[in-house]
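We emphasize that the prediction below concerns an isolated chain of 628 residues; any contacts that depend on oligomerization or on bound cofactors are therefore not represented. The input was used exactly as deposited, without trimming of termini.
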Amino acid sequence: MQVTMSRREVSVRLRALGLLLATAMPMGCSDGGDGQATSTSPPQGQVAVTPSTTSITTLQQQQFVATIDNASSTAVTWKVDGIVGGDANVGTITAFGLYTPVRLQGSHAITAVNAQDASQHASAAVSVVPLGGVLTYHNDNARTGQYALESVLVPGNVNTATFGKLFVAPVDGQVYAQPLYVANVSVAGQLHNLVFVATEHNSIYAFDADRAGAALWHTSFIDPANGITSQPSSDTGCPDINPEIGITSTPVIDPVTGLLYAVAKTKENGIAKYRLHALDIATGTDRSGAGVDIQASVPGTSGRVVFNPLIENQRLSLLLSHGVVYFGTGSYCDLGDHHGWLLAYDAATLVQRSAFNATPNGTEGGIWQSGGGAAADVDGNVYVATGNGTFDAASSGTNYGNTILRLNVSLGVSDYFTPYNQQVLSDNDGDLGSAGMVLLPDQPTGPPHLLVGAGKQGVVYVIDRDHMGRFQAASDSQIVQSLPVGACATGACPVFGTPAYFNQKVYVAAVADGLRAFAWAGGQLSLSARSANTFGWPGATPSVSANGTSNGIVWALETNGSGAPAVLHAYAADDVSRELYNSKQGGNQNPARDDAPGPAVKFAVPTIANGRVYVGASGQLSVFGLLP
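Result of the prediction step, given as a token string:
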């Protein structure tokens, strides 16, 4: 069947054409329109297609236009990779030349054939690329915190005179999750840069990232009329997340399929549930229907250990790696017979692939990392840190309290590191797993694959990921390095935030300490600089914006516990003792100016993208940028 286009529909114009370029993939055109490629070179000067080359994301459409220099030829037949009209494998094209790609990365040839003379045709090339933006917690699976494509915000213009709060988007609950950002998404036929916000009231919003206005879409996972609500904090006996528990962890976005995965906690007619959802980022439509009910169990010496949604706290941010979605749980105030769980689901089918329990024959060992995400390397190995709990792995046991783990794609333990003083940490609530980890880029000398982590005792660990060291009773001399974050008035400086990495520096913001930059040189970390201001509890998770390796800025959010006014800080990445801006300065200079990001939510992390900084708070998203 032919797909044709009228003179009016394609705006056929008479013009003499010179030599035309049939671009990209050498797709031949058939003699009789049956879609089979031939080796015959197409005649020159007959048909033209514009644009001749283009690149779009998996969520964009592209309008192609054909022109014919023969007045009697009034229509064309459109093909994608030699297939008339295209198909579900290569994308489809309408009779009007509107191409819709499949949600797979690749390159395709768009061919227009003169419907009256199949020997007259021309081709264009379209590259379908993954979505761009901030798609996961701390920007990448290594959790470096880097946004290295920032060409607008530079140290010279981030100051109180030229930078500040632009607008606020109201939401229906507390924003514990880091906002996510995707550029160039078609929503109802219009392209938008989108910022996504998840709340404890079990909502996900998509806002235009560049201008104030109502949400472009809003999806809620509650239905009070049918007995489905967020979970009241009082159900857990813990006021840690208060007054309600819904979406706590940062979702993750698949850059190819355009699906946003999120885990929501609900109370369904009196029963606590966790459900995994997959939303289309262009529409908010839940591809999972009502969401996948999270259930799991693993063998233990006393029978099956069963996942209990009521007492498990799903705080670990989601990870998407090698087609698998991972997320983990800790506890609420260490109450109940809880365990650290890490669960893996197939991203395409949402079928559970595997389940890991950190203490199947013990207790605790929560995997929470103060909202940080599991990290993953290029081979698909997954890294998590556990909190206080039973540890007996050194004596052939299966319990891994206060341990940094390397897990394979099936969630089997392939290596680990446990501090020599793990029992002291456990006895004193000194969670190693209070902070996330960052995987450093491959190193040219020494061990090539390194990991940096920290915890409540205020010690930074540098670990060889290929030989993690396991457990050594006398000391931690088997690892690359351990060093204190700093000397605080209270003794140790507890770390609750994931470190950031940029230009051979590691950035850490501990409790009762400033933002510290540690330089990596000669196979060791050493203090480079410290900010003048001090962060209260729970410290901060720093993030970095830069244009490649230039114009680096370190951003950190001061929260001082939930509810207090948040403060956004910006520092020069090459010397963090030089503060560029903080959100108190605008009000200090002009009482009418309000740069406050809103009531703080602990563990919140700012997102930087395309000249904007997005800060989640209680009941709102604040958007910062260059002032008009």
